[in-house]
Design brief:
The chain has about 300 residues and is mainly alpha-helical. Strands 1-3-2-4 form a 4-stranded mixed β-sheet, with helices on both faces. The chain has helices spanning about 5-20, 30-55, 60-70, 80-120, 150-155, 155-170, 175-190, 195-215, 220-230, 250-255, 265-295, and strands at about 125-130, 135-140, 145-150, 240.
């Protein structure tokens, strides 16, 4: 095995570190979110494949190659140590358990919200007789906006339009799918947890900006968000696209600032790092193939 088999893991750490630093500075456009999610997918796939290559070494291929090379008087780099192969296998198993858990939690959350929507009749808007101020985008065919009476009573007419526009942006932008993808990537590779949080924040910011455009006022949008946050009691449904999810103070501050400008440099950096992990995984695969081919062709 070459050192390239370990690079996806190291590059994942770099992607995680960069996401912590630049996520608040990224423009919350759909293109930016797609780029960050794409980088996370590349990192997760590359890391998983690198772990598979390391785990496959337990089958004895690399040791057989080393032994054959020694018999031919050829010196090869040390094969993958057995401990690393075992560790890779355990990490793969742990990642599979985490992915199943994420899927189950998201499915349960969606099922619960859909049941609440059905209890409120038909139509895009479902009003639940609950005092706590909450609003959710509930994906489906069709998607619906679930809002509590407590939130409706708290806001004025303009602020209500902000909430509806925010949740509609989630549904139109397929934000639930983007968040789910980022969560699965972080389940496969826990080092990508900061990227998962960055995606969750960016989709909320994207919906905030859409609501500000629809309402015609960034101040009204910020006020609606702040009023709901101050009155909030209790948490939001797990994995739900909720109006009050993720770093409300930072979102309010961003709405009181100037509208964000499109930025291609930072998202491009994310994509470049993701492509680098994929390239490292391809290099490791070619090296592994050459080792096996060398053994069998000898």
């Amino acid at each position: 095995m070459t050192v390239s088999v370990y690079l996806p893991v190291l590059l994942s750490l770099l992607v995680a570190g960069v996401s912590r630093l630049v996520a608040p500075r990224l423009s919350p456009s759909r293109g930016t979110v797609l780029t960050v999610v794409g980088a996370a997918v590349l990192c997760a796939v590359a890391t998983t494949w690198a772990l598979v290559l390391l785990a496959v070494s337990l089958l004895g291929f690399t040791s057989a190659v080393a032994q054959e090379a020694s018999e031919r008087g050829v010196h090869l780099a040390n094969p993958v140590p057995g401990g690393i192969g075992v560790a890779a296998l355990l990490v793969l198993g742990y990642g599979s358990v985490r992915v199943i858990r994420v899927i189950r939690v998201r499915a349960a959350s969606r099922r619960e919200l859909r049941e609440l929507c059905r209890s409120c009749g038909r139509g895009e808007l479902a009003v639940v007789p609950v005092r706590a101020p909450h609003a959710f985008a509930v994906p489906g065919h069709p998607g619906r906006v679930l809002i509590t009476q407590g939130l409706l009573a708290l806001l004025d007419a303009k602020e209500r339009r902000v909430v509806l526009a925010h949740e509609r942006a989630h549904l139109a932008g397929w934000h639930h799918g983007l968040r789910a993808t980022a969560e699965v990537c972080a389940a496969v590779n826990p080092m990508l947890a900061p990227v998962r949080e960055a995606v969750a924040f960016l989709v909320e910011r994207n919906a905030d900006e859409h609501a500000a455009t629809v309402s015609g006022s960034r101040e009204v949008t910020a006020r609606a968000l702040a009023k709901a946050a101050l009155a909030e009691s209790g948490g939001c449904a797990a994995s739900a696209l909720a109006f009050l999810a993720y770093d409300v103070p930072a979102r309010v501050a961003a709405l009181y600032a100037a509208p964000p400008r499109p930025d291609r440099v930072l998202p491009g950096g994310f994509l470049l790092l993701g492509l680098s992990t994929a390239f490292a995984a391809v290099q490791a695969t070619l090296a592994f193939y050459q080792l096996i081919h060398w053994l069998w062709s000898g």
